[in-house]
Every structure is written in structure tokens, then in C-alpha cells.
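dude i think i finally got it to work??
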Amino acid sequence: MGLTPPLHGYASVAHHPSAQRGKNYYNAWYTDLHAAAGESGQPDLPMLRKTGGFTPFVQLAGIPSLDVAFGNNASKGLYFPALGTSYDVFELADKFIDPGYRVHRMCRELLIALLWQWSEAVLLPYDLKELGARLNLEFNELSTRHKDVLDKNSIRFDSLSHAVKLFTANLNHFEGELTRVDLKK
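look at this
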């Protein structure tokens, strides 16, 4: 979330090991997943789930984390029904899912490029407008999805609504300030 520009940039450069010569990962993703899911047209780093292997790092140790996944459209690509079972072993993955681990190598190279860029950056290249939009989207979804329960129990989100609006306004102000600063000094 909020890191779309560098993700899109590197995904556009990363070579995809498809039959089509010169196809990059972004184009492969766009024609496969995007076409099937009706997504926005941009890769997405979703908000972290409340469960997962990264939870202790984020919740207890305060270590920034990403939940990055590479997927494929099962209706167009090969579906491996043994995924997550005792039959999910390297030999079967190499034979049925990703022969020669070509796609795995491409994903690895993409992540290495992103992590290298982010580790060298003075500030992570967050798109603050995207972050604010996501917070507003999540808040609105919370308010509308559970409206009946909230109304029934007289629960109001006035303070939270105010906090989200204030946070969004401060993000916009901060983004304006960043345009005036030379981060290369």
C-alpha cells in the first residue's frame, strides 16, 4: 500500500519468463490477474492482515513489514491442487508449477530490486495520497458493512472519523512540504 510507483517501475522492467519475447512482469500480471479480477490496473500492496507470520514483528516488536505475494489466475494458468499439503514438495513444484523455477527467480529479482531501493532511500517512497485514500476506504467500509450492528448498539465513530480526516489533511500537508525539500543533500 502506498508504494505503487517503485513497485510498478520495477515490475515493468523485470523480465517475465513467458513464451512471448520481451514480456515484463507488469504486462504479464496486467493481462492475467488484472483482466480476471477487474482491478485498478496497478499492482497493490494490501494492508497487513491481523494474522500471519509477520504479526509478531509488526504488533510486538514494531518492525515494519510487507505482505507481498505473487499469484496467478487459476482459470488461465496451471492450478496445483496439492498446494499446502504434504505433496507440496520441490520436485512436484519444479515439474508442475514452475519448471526450472523461472517465475520464482523473476519474483526474487523483483523483490531484491525493491528492497535494495528501499534500504538506500532516506524516506520510503510512499504515495501519501494513496495511503490517505486507503484509510478513508477502510473506514467507510467499516462504517457501512457493520451499520446495523453499530446502530443497534448506538456505537458512533465520530472521533475516529475526525481522526481519519485530520490524518488525511496532515498527509496532504506533509506531501506538500516534501516537494520543497531536497532529499539528495
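Residues 35-39 have pLDDT under 50 and may be disordered.
im so relieved honestly
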